[in-house]
Design goal:
The chain is α/β, with parallel strands linked by helices. The chain is 40% helix and 10% strand. The protein is built from 23 helices and 13 strands. The longest helix is centred in the C-terminal third of the chain and has 24 residues, at 492-515.
Length: 618
């Protein structure tokens, strides 16, 4: 024990020295000057990268009375956490703390939504057309329509497909390295669901466009009969098997979808790589030596590897969009409250949504799970769900499908990424212009304080949610322990100040979307990080890496505006996917998905075949 504590003290001292010696550290953050200064203000994060024994020792040091408090105080000073309270003290008193980012539609907004014809998901899905395939790239992912059209024609049955999926998952878990997309599958239940769907097709009476389609669900969402681990090795015993489905899962099941099982995730959803020391780390199907991104890691891995055409993720700080982007997929994070699903671990920032191989499938599943539910108060104010026609013809650039749409570009923000990521985003901007959109330069003030306020909020919420499991605290991996200890130490003043910043940035974004219809950025500032073998059993803490993956993500969670990520290309050296993100005003998911469909034209030959891929329809 003495040796461990000695190591912990040494790591603590090293961390403190890193704080004190930072070249870009500020002795005093001038909140008023920052508020009034419109310049781009995000600065690189500087923090030691820890893994293995040093990280274990560091997490142990944080649990030591006084020593842990001193280290956290140093970390907070280093990262200027105090800027949030300082900034909140300077903003207009009209920005009272706003805890839930719920937006009640105005009368004008409701009227605009009411002009749309009643949305019919069956008609919408039926308007599908296949991805064009060139001779140069014969690969394409199977769409939802590929499954259901084969079922209807009797080419294959849901029962046969379910068997193939189960076999493919088993093979993926004994591969070298294992894919580790799923953590819980009940084979008998999967077969029973598939048999029921097969019977409906035999009668010529499928329930709709999702009947028989295999879908995977992130582990932190309740699925009847399954235990919820939330990526840990002990919470399954605490929660037991779910007695009923969560709202979005119940909606999918009612539509006839075959729920394959629950997918792997970064422990308690508190990281961005997907690394999991308990259930194994999901591998990026495009290059298994790299991470999928997180925290909805298994959902992205399952879709990218062809095990399922769509999976459900949860996004509290990019956890749908980051893995979707890093795995070459489409990920939708709708307006806060649009998809009714309680999220007790991060109630004011979490969103449930789909990860799919194409915009049309993402839209179909989004439409299936979206909508108000009386059990979730935050979902009640929303207008009706509507998605425009998403066909290849409608998205043809030659037809100028985005004529009249204004797209905002924050030049300095877009440029603050790896060179290949910036190039892909610029190509996407040009593609939108070719489709008729008008590009307008914009600025978004005080991004840095928004990012910090989101960090205070999500870590505080997660630390509070995990307090009830304090007896098992040391069973969390070291990275999670560090994050939770940080979350425990934020004060009530800091948390309230963060909600004032939320109110302020809600105003900022509302003003932004008076001038533009959409905002485009990279999804992440870098491609997928490489998997460090030394961290697979101990976890990794890399603040710089996390900040790079989350740089463009925060407004979607903290303010609650909708966002979608779309594949935009691949890195030259490793063939790793690059994503671009499009953001819109509250309740404008239809416009987002329309832009996503147009942006599919960035890959005219279709997506590349991943290194790890399972064909379950052949």
């Amino acid at each position: 024990m003495g040796g461990l504590m000695g190591s912990a003290a040494a790591v603590a001292l090293a961390a403190a020295l890193a704080v004190l010696l930072r070249d870009d550290a500020l002795d005093l953050w001038d909140a008023k000057a920052a508020r009034d200064d419109g310049r781009y203000d995000i600065v690189p994060m500087v923090s030691p990268r820890l893994l293995g024994a040093p990280l274990t020792a560091f997490s142990a040091a944080l649990r030591v009375p006084l020593l842990g408090d001193a280290i956290i105080a140093w970390i907070s000073k280093d990262n200027e956490v105090g800027m949030v309270a300082s900034f909140a003290a300077t903003i207009n008193h009209a920005f009272s703390p706003k805890y839930y980012p719920t937006h009640v539609p105005t009368a004008a907004e409701r009227e605009r939504h009411a002009r749309h014809a009643p949305f019919n998901i069956t008609e919408f899905a039926g308007a599908s057309d296949a991805f064009k395939v060139s001779q140069a790239s014969p690969f394409r992912y199977y769409s939802i329509a590929d499954y259901t059209s084969r079922y209807a024609a009797g080419v294959v049955t849901p029962t046969e497909v379910a068997k193939r999926v189960l076999d493919a998952v088993s093979r993926s878990d004994v591969a070298t390295p294992p894919l580790r997309a799923f953590t819980s599958i009940l084979p008998a239940d999967v077969r029973a669901q598939a048999e029921e769907s097969t019977a409906r097709y035999r009668k010529g009476a499928p329930l709709g466009p999702l009947d028989g389609v295999p879908i995977a669900i992130k582990d932190e969402i309740d699925v009847k009969g399954h235990r919820m681990t939330v990526g840990t090795d002990f919470l399954a015993a605490t929660f037991g098997a779910a007695e009923e489905d969560s709202i979005p899962v119940a909606r999918l099941r009612a539509a006839g979808a075959v729920i394959i099982g629950k997918t792997n995730m970064h422990e308690i959803g508190i990281g961005t790589t997907g690394l999991n020391t308990h259930h194994g780390t999901p591998r990026n199907p495009h290059n298994p030596e790299y991470h999928t991104g997180g925290s909805s890691a298994g959902s992205a891995a399952a879709v990218a590897a062809g095990l399922v055409p769509v999976a459900i993720g949860v996004d509290g700080g990019g956890s749908i969009r980051i893995p979707a982007a890093l795995c070459g997929l489409v990920g939708v994070k709708a307006t806060f409250g649009r998809v009714a699903c309680p999220a007790p671990d991060a109630p004011s920032v979490a969103h449930v949504g789909p990860i799919a191989t194409n915009a049309k499938d993402a839209a179909v599943v989004y439409a299936a799970v979206a909508g108000a539910h009386e059990a979730v108060e935050e979902s009640l104010p929303q207008p009706g769900v509507h998605v425009p026609v998403l066909s290849d013809a409608a998205a043809d650039v030659a037809r100028a499908p985005l004529k009249g749409v204004t797209v905002g570009v924050y030049e300095e923000w877009v440029n603050d990424a790896e060179e290949e990521v910036v190039a892909a985003c610029r190509k996407a901007i040009e593609h939108l212009k070719a489709a008729g959109a008008v590009v307008q330069q914009v600025q978004i003030p005080n991004l840095r304080v928004m990012n910090m306020a989101h960090g205070i909020t999500i870590l505080s919420e997660m630390a509070a949610a995990m307090t009830k499991h304090s007896a098992n605290f040391t069973r969390f991996c070291a990275e999670t322990q560090v994050s939770l200890k940080l979350g425990e130490k934020f004060s009530a003043r800091e948390l309230l100040a963060a909600q004032q910043v939320r109110a302020y940035h809600t105003h900022v974004h509302r003003e932004l979307f008076k001038d533009v219809d959409l905002l485009i950025t990279p999804t992440t500032a870098a491609t997928a990080p490489v998997i460090d073998a030394d961290g697979l059993s101990s976890s990794v803490s890399d603040v710089k890496e996390t900040a790079s993956l989350m740089k463009y993500i925060i407004a979607g969670n903290f303010v609650g505006v909708p966002a979608v990520t779309v594949p935009a290309g691949y890195s030259k050296a490793r063939g790793l996917p690059i994503g671009v993100q499009v953001v819109a005003d509250f309740w404008q998911e239809g416009r987002l998905l329309e832009a996503a469909k147009v942006l599919e034209g960035l890959l005219p030959d279709g997506p590349r075949r991943p290194e790890v891929f399972y064909d379950v329809l052949q």
